Amino acid sequence: MHTSQTSVRIAMWSGPRNISTAMMRAWGNRRDTVVIDEPFYAYYLRTTGKNHPGADEVIAAGEIDWRKIVAQLTGSIPNGKRIFFQKQMTHHFLPEIDREWLGAVTNCFLIRDPREVIASYVKKREDPRLEDLGFTQQVEIFNFVRRRLNSIPPVVDAKDVLENPERILRLLCDAVRVDFGKSMLSWPPGLRDTDGIWARHWYTEVTKTTSFQPYHPTADEVPERSREIYERCRECYERLYRHRLH
């Protein structure tokens, strides 16, 4: 049992086309937790000029000064809550953003088989570049945190979560030193006030859910044109996979 009332800031680092929004739903359904959705997204779009759906709207609505974002993530927790769950995208965390603030939050990592990520990505958008998929950035962040802590930060794999949500969430909660709550296993359908303004473009499926969905392996193969990128992503994935909670 982790009965301390000390505040906890949890940054979960994931790439795109993962179960990160469902994970945000799980944490957001706790009474002691407030969540934030991809806080660096507007900064990322403004800086890179990536042509994402609704990009202008995201930039207009979001914070584009990374220093102010960091101050928000490490400052007082909103709404008087004890836990601040931060859904973070690894590819949004551009190299010029200072990494030192990661020492002020509890970092954990959500990974997914790159074959499944790429198969999902190409259905939504054009063929990805390596930097669009977040695997190399995820390893970089993981290594920074590992060096900073001199210990291995928690890693969970999407397949493991979907196959046994309660077991993996219990392990994750224990690793980040908070008590597991059954409320994390189900939630009401629909959008949330805490969802990013981009939710209507990206969250169509998750808004229909009320729990983690059963794992179904994809039959889709990586397109030949993406094989080289896949191999690079696979190397990164395997580095973190060996450390996963299971």
Chain-wise SSE layout:
Elements: E1 8-14, H1 20-28, E2 33-37, H2 41-48, H3 55-61, H4 66-74, E3 83-89, E4 106-111, H5 114-124, H6 130-133, H7 135-149, E5 155-157, H8 158-163, H9 165-175, H10 199-202, H11 227-241
Parallel strand pairs: 1-3, 1-4, 2-3, 4-5
Helix pairs in contact: 2-3, 7-11
How is this structure best summarized?
With 246 residues, this protein is α/β, with parallel strands linked by helices.
Question: Tags for this entry?
Answer:
single chain; 246 residues; alpha/beta; Rossmann fold; five-stranded parallel beta sheet; 11 helices; 40% helix; 11% strand
Structure description:
The protein has 246 residues and is an alpha/beta fold. The protein contains eleven helices and five strands; from the N terminus they run βαβαααββαααβαααα. A five-stranded parallel β-sheet has the order 2-3-1-4-5, with helices on both faces.
